[in-house]
Write a structure and sequence with these properties.
The complex is a heterodimer.
Chain A (H helix, E strand, L loop, with lengths): L15 E4 L5 E4 L18 E7 L8 H7 L6 H10 L5 E4 L12 H14 L4 E4 L4 H14 L6 E5 L4 H11 L2 E5 L4 H13 L7 E4 L9 H16 L11 E2 L1 H5 L18 H19 L3 E4 L2 H21 L1
Parallel strand pairs in A: 3-4, 3-10, 4-5, 5-6, 6-7, 7-8, 9-10
Antiparallel strand pairs in A: 1-2
Chain B lengths: L1 E4 L7 H9 L2 H13 L4 E7 L5 H15 L4 E5 L2 H10 L8 E5 L6 H10 L3 E4 L10 H17 L7 E4 L9 H15 L7 E5 L12 H15 L3 E4 L1 H14 L13
Parallel strand pairs in B: 1-2, 1-8, 2-3, 3-4, 4-5, 5-6, 6-7, 7-8
Helix pairs in contact in B: 1-2, 2-3, 3-4, 4-5, 6-7, 7-8, 8-9
Classes of the chains: A alpha/beta, B alpha/beta.
């Protein structure tokens, strides 16, 4: 008698999200725990979006400025540059709208988004500045300008979800719902968002990201709990794709910034910084993230190779 | 826990009138209300149905399933009516439930039907000698029912053991015996035997305003003991079910858990 590997039976699946207008891309849609190819279907590979910002970044360390400083004064050029690097999706962060940055207006932001949408074909993720009040101002206007482009808008939080999700609904977009490292709060926010009529199938959970060595385990275990609650315990409210906003957190860490003179024992800054982002991203793939926002092209390349290596066996068996 | 909506019963005057007139509307309205309130299954209790039992069961099953996408718990002592219900039942939304058999030989035919139609069945722990006195007697009958079911080739997973809830106003000590029975029944097999109650019989004969209170608290205790299914008025107990599921960790807590 042949040995049969016991299989978990799942009570639900993660919805697939397709976004973009001219060029479309999909993620999610799987029916088993991350990379458990032997227990379910995985119609899509995890997706990596290149992060750009709406203005010259104020806090990009040396390794990032080396790559982007020639293009970052114009978000359209920056996005095109990412496209030339092989980007499948762009995540534009409206950093300059933050009150502590330039406090630029919703109108200014929407003009930039309009230009990006008219000149770039790639699917777009539009992120506010993570200032909940300002985001509630900016994102509805931006969401309206992008109407019909089937973007991902984010991030809706407990304090501002009403205006942001209502405008994402009106604009026909998908929505990132962010809660702070807590599985119960993640569920609660999704309930609230669906109660105002936003479809659950278009919500992407952001359990709040972190970087390797800086609270990484918290995000990882919350992601695990969300996946298990959704797929095994049948909590449909938590059956949503998850996003990991990796670059934003990784490139603040000391490991991505300390020069070789400052930390000679840590070796090459370039390798260290790139690997810090790549390892953080790969680990979140294991805890269930389907969409990752990253900054360094070399780190993206490493993560893509990791994904392709894992999917290789699945593709060969089909 | 499986929630079975109890309201479509011949005992209710509104239902009885609708059945007599073959008026679909009130029946469908009650079915929809129970479905919206959280029922997973609708009970259709037509009683002994001595006249036109088959036609009546067919009528009520199709009337319900025309409007709600749920399986039906078929409640009658008339085997012909039972078989008619099993035949006409639309299994698209789940199997029908046979309500019920017991250790009374006249009811063994229900086992036969369960086997023939591959349907789950409620087994009341009642013998020929009248009502059971305590949990131990119920367990004794349960074991005999399980043996009987095996003779008919019915798997234990398709049996719901019903300890028979009695009226608190006349048999107060039986409530505690029922709670103990739920616990003991489960130990009769691995995986545990399934259990079911007709909840509201507890408060039968009590003043109207205290009936929901008795029903709700009793259900909470039964759930704690591991009850698998209950025939209830869904809108009366849905908060209890959700809350106990949260407290026992079956459902993940969120501030709005009552709203989903």
């Amino acid at each position: 008698m042949n040995f049969q590997i016991p299989k978990e039976t799942y009570t639900g699946g993660v919805p697939e999200i397709t976004f973009g207008k001219e060029k479309k891309v999909s993620f999610g849609g799987e029916s088993a725990l991350p990379f458990y190819f032997f227990e379910g279907d995985f119609p899509n590979k995890p997706l990596i979006a290149f992060e750009i910002q709406d203005d010259i970044p104020e806090d990009y360390p040396q390794e990032l400025s080396k790559v982007y400083s020639s293009v970052w004064n114009d978000p359209v050029r920056w996005a095109k540059f990412c496209e030339s690097l092989g980007a499948e999706a762009i995540a534009v962060r409206l950093t300059s709208t933050h009150p502590d940055s330039k406090d630029s207006t919703a109108q200014e932001a929407s003009q930039k988004i309009k230009r990006i949408l008219s000149e770039i074909d790639l699917p777009l993720i539009i992120l506010g500045s993570n200032h909940s009040e300002k985001d509630a101002d900016v994102l509805p206007v931006v969401s309206d300008v992008a109407r019909g482009y089937n973007c991902i808008i984010g991030k809706a939080q407990e304090s501002n979800y009403k205006t942001i999700s209502a405008s994402a609904l009106a604009g026909g977009h998908n929505l990132i719902a962010m809660s702070e490292l807590d599985v119960n709060l993640a569920k609660q926010l999704n309930i609230l968002i669906t109660q105002i009529g936003f479809p659950k199938e278009k919500i992407i959970i952001d359990p709040m990201c972190s970087a390797l060595g800086y609270g990484f385990e918290y995000t990882y275990s919350v992601m695990e709990r969300i996946r298990i609650a959704g797929l095994i315990q049948g909590d449909t409210m938590l059956n949503c794709p998850m996003i990991a906003d990796v670059g934003f957190y990784v490139w603040k860490t000391k490991e991505t910034q300390a020069t070789e003179e400052e930390a000679p024992q840590w070796g090459s800054l370039y390798e260290r910084a790139v690997m810090w982002e790549a390892v953080t991203a790969c680990s979140f793939l294991l805890s269930g993230a389907e969409l990752i926002i990253m900054r360094h092209p070399k780190a993206v390349e490493v993560v893509k190779r990791f994904i392709n290596d894992i999917f290789y066996k699945l593709e060969r068996s089909e | 826990m499986l929630i079975i909506g109890e309201r479509l019963s011949i005992i209710s005057k509104k239902v009885r009138d609708a059945i007599l007139k073959r008026d679909k509307k009130p029946i469908q309205q009650i079915a929809i209300e129970q479905w919206k309130a959280g029922a997973h299954m609708i009970e259709a209790n037509i009683g002994p149905a001595e006249d036109n039992g088959e036609e009546l069961m067919e009528w009520i099953v199709t009337t319900i399933q025309e409007t709600v996408p749920l399986p039906i718990s078929l409640d009658t002592t008339n085997p012909k009516a039972m078989e008619a219900g099993l035949k006409i039942h639309n299994n698209e939304w789940g199997k029908p439930l046979i309500n019920s058999t017991s250790l009374d030989p006249e009811r063994f035919i229900m086992f036969e039907l369960a086997s023939k139609y591959n349907a789950p069945i409620i087994a009341l722990t009642v013998g020929k000698g009248g009502l059971p006195r305590d949990a131990e007697e119920r367990v004794e009958i349960a074991v005999q029912l399980m043996e009987k079911a095996s003779e008919y080739g019915i798997s234990f997973e398709d049996i719901y053991l019903d300890p028979l809830v009695l009226q608190i106003s006349t048999s107060q000590n039986q409530a505690r015996e029922v709670l103990r029975s739920i616990k003991l029944f489960q130990q009769l097999n691995d995986p545990p035997m399934k259990t079911i109650v007709g909840l509201s019989n507890l408060s039968n004969g009590c003043p109207k305003e205290i009936r929901p209170i008795l029903n709700r608290y009793f259900l909470a205790l039964l759930m704690y003991e591991g009850l698998s299914a209950a025939i209830v008025n869904p809108s009366e107990v849905i908060e209890v079910i959700k809350t106990i599921n949260v407290i026992t960790g079956k459902i993940l807590y969120a501030h709005s858990y009552l709203e989903i």
